[in-house]
Amino acid sequence: MKTFNIDSREHYRNKVFPSPFHERQAALNENREWSRWYDYLSVPAYTCSTMEYFAGRNTCGVFDLTPMTKHRITGPDALTFLNRLVTRDMTKVKPGRVGYSVWCDDRGQVIDDGTVFHLHEGDYRLCSQEHQIDWLLINARGFDVSVVEDTHDVAALALQGPTSCAVLKKMNLPEVESITPFGLKHFDFEGTQLTVSRTGYTGDLGYELWIDPDHAGVLWDRLFEAGELHGIQPMGSEALELLRIEAGFILAGEDFAPAMHTVRHRNTRSPFELGLGWLVDFDKPVFNGRRALLREKAEGSRYALVKLDIEDNKPAEHAYVYDTRGRNIGWVTSAMWSPSAKKNIALATVETPHGETGEKMKVEIYYQRELKWHRKMADAVVVRDAFWDPPRRRATPPADF
Predict the structure, then answer these.
(1) For residues 313 and 350, what is the distance between their CA atoms, to the nearest angstrom?
(2) 338 phi/psi in degrees, rounded to 5
(3) 3-class secondary structure, 141
(4) Domain ranges across the chain
């Protein structure tokens, strides 16, 4: 059986919705600026994106995750269906665990990446950047599985930063500190169920909280009461963008073009070309794109996604990348000056065989000062590790910072 849950508010008739947390967000949104994240209003920055960034690195920031696309997958064939859909072996993601993965078309090109939450035995939630209900239903043919888009049925907050665990402990959630990275637990909360997962998009200690929309307001209030002495702050999308680049996390539409949205096939990317080869498990028998990915592994990839450490402090946004002989070999997809790493950093796509760790490159940066444009050919080097990866991200139980 395959179903698609049409929200009771008939969301397809409306252009944009307020989040279940909107009343609390509006009270704190001093800038009075709103952006759109698919079906919902979202906050770019409540006051100052830089200060909200530092909350995510030094105390804790709260980001509204509700607009993220969510799908509930249940039924006798739920595991078999997911194992056919994604590249990683989902039999290894047990109940109470979360697995990051990608899913591809038959050419082995990435449609999207996301997290799969194994909520209970045979009960999964797939979270993604893009709406995937059509692709999921097409692939569900022949499986005894129910696929429901439940984006509007789940309110969610990301609580990220070194004091995040201390805040949750103050909310009297039993043994919340025992949740390991990519683990989840369910709690009784104000007459409903609150799910807490140790996941996030910042590369730091952090959690995501999932609850029914009717209890969104009370969750926000309880969270901010518990975090009052722990530096808790609301955080907008601009700060989250800085945090994810430091962590080396990719974003659909920025660091790669989803395969279902491109006009020219050569503009898509495979998991290997995004540095996600570790998510491709050829030991399982069949999954979408398996034959094409086996061929690519044997013949080699077209591109590599690399992390660049760039000289000076001018962010290399939308910059071209050159080899040491001056030949154009790629372009920057995401860039920033990292306040925590104290480095000018970027994610970039380069043509193979370029992209080996330690390889030196040149980046063509244009920047404006007092209405005058300047050009700089900056030295850059390919690095292997993320620019921000503190030990507390993996510590269990986390320390009370």
Answers:
(1) 22
(2) -90, 110
(3) coil
(4) 1-300, 302-385
Asked if residues 335 and 245 have their Cβ atoms less than 8 Å apart, the reply is yes
Q: Which two tokens stand for residue 208?
A: 């995501």
Beta bridge partners of 86: 103
Distance (Å) of CA 331 to CA 183, 244, 321, 349, 391 = 36, 19, 5, 6, 31
Give domain 1-300's CATH number out of 2.40.50.140, 3.30.1360.120, 3.40.50.150, 3.40.50.300.
3.30.1360.120
DSSP state of 342: T
The answer to whether 207 and 306 are in contact (CB under 8 A) is no
What's the DSSP call for residue 107? T
Quote the CA–CA distance of 262 and 267 in Å, as a whole number: 7
Q: Is the peptide bond before 95 cis (omega within 30 degrees of 0)?
A: no
Structure tokens at 184: 């989840």
Rounded to an integer, what distance in angstroms lies between the CA atom of residue 338 and that of residue 345?
Answer: 7
Each residue's pLDDT tens digit, 230-283: 999 999 999 999 999 999 999 999 999 999 988 888 899 999 999 999 999 999
Alpha-carbon distances of 205 from 56, 94, 169, 211, 273, rounded to whole Å: 9, 22, 14, 21, 28
Phi first, then psi, for residue 78 (nearest 5°) are -60, -45
Global pTM reads 0.93
